Amino acid sequence: MRTRRSQRYRLLRLLMLLRTGRAPSARQLADMLEISLRTVRRDLDELRDDWGAPIEFDRRRGGYVLTDPNWQPPIGPFTELRLSAGEAVALLLAHTAFEAMRGTGLEDAFRSLVAKLPAWLPESVSVNPEELRAMFSFAFEPLRGDAREVAERLHALRQAIDGRRRIVLEYASASRGEVTRREVEPYHLRYFDGAWYVVGFCRLRQDLRIFAVDRIRAIEPTGRTFAPPDPERFSPETYFAATWRLERGEKMVRVAVRFTPEQARYMRGRRWHPSQEAVEEPDGSLVLLFRVLGLEEIKRWIMQFGAAAEVLEPPELRDKIVAEAEKIIARSRVSRSVTLDGVKKG
């Protein structure tokens, strides 16, 4: 069944290329479809003989054409595989986003796809990539780590996830700086804040763990496979919905933060977390409520708002922020007599 579907898809793509009216040669068709000349000629014969397509070779132009522009294949409307202008714009924007992210290993595939766009568009529709780039832009954090090494690691991880194959990671932790070897069942890749991460079951810790791809020193195959994880054990939606960003703590915690009336104007209308609830107060301030696993990431998020944010609960989080603020004040007092080049003022 899969072979018949892919062949039919290829034949429809061949028809799309003929409908452009550019009279492509057999060699050009083979290159665009990434198949052999023999396959192209066999497909052209099948379209003519079995589908009844009015295909002729135009000797003057040196290529193949459809003599009846209104002809439709017998399996359904040909337009089903044509891209609308909106779909083409969406595809180009996705390509631009991937270009900004880098390190995916998919950049070349996207460039090839964009190069083929004209063959997928009706004659009356044109999309200019340069005009789109002038109209839209994407601001992603610069990729963390060496781009070539990250791309190589991503390629190996994608293969392991696709084949459900266990791997051994040589991993340098950020907290302790130590290098460990862990056998991992990789489940999912996630891009966040300029870095790639892989989530999987760590057989060393006997629990789900998240690993930064740029901190992976080496990936070794084990030759062993694993069963797909039960959705109750892992799904990207539930796993990340319980974290603030990426980190996971031991227990679920309810967090309440009050924002001043001035800051509240910027906080309203945006969903900062899937668990978010909002409570309006009479003076115009806003209380946001969250439920998260772990406090470190949400602590850093709250501190960016300075005095405009007040932690109402839990007390543990409030104490963490007070302690961090006191450290900042103490360090500022010590270093304020030192210039940027390290020379003390008189």
Q: Distance N terminus to C terminus?
A: 82 Å
Per CATH, the architecture of the largest domain is: Roll
User: What oligomeric state is this?
Assistant: single chain
How many helices in DSSP terms?
12
Tell me, briefly, the overall form. elongated
Output the CATH class name of the largest domain: Mainly Beta
- The helix-and-strand class reads alpha+beta
Proportion of residues in helical segments: 25-40%
User: In total, how many domains does the architecture comprise?
Assistant: 4
Number of strands: 11
Overall pLDDT, averaged? Answer: 84
Low-pLDDT runs of 5+ residues are 1-5, 76-81
- Predict the CATH topology of the largest domain: SH3 type barrels
Tell me what portion of residues adopts beta-strand conformation: 15-25%
Rg on CA atoms, Å: 28 Å
Biggest sheet, open or closed, and with what strands and sense?
A: 5 strands, antiparallel
Q: State the order of secondary-structure elements, H for helix, E for strand.
A: HHHEEHHHHHEEEEEHEHEEHEH
Spatial sequence of strands, sheet with the most strands = 6-5-4-3-7
Description:
It is a single chain. By secondary structure, the protein is α+β, with helices and mostly antiparallel strands. It folds into 4 domains: 80 residues, Winged helix-like DNA-binding domain superfamily/Winged helix DNA-binding domain (Arc Repressor Mutant, subunit A), CATH 1.10.10; 51 residues; 95 residues, SH3 type barrels (Roll); 83 residues, Alpha-Beta Plaits. Helix 2 crosses helix 3 and helix 4 packs antiparallel against helix 5. It is elongated, with a radius of gyration of 28 Å. The N terminus is likely disordered. Keywords: DNA-binding, Transcription, Transcription regulation. One of its GO terms (molecular function) is DNA-binding transcription factor activity. This is DNA-binding transcriptional regulator.
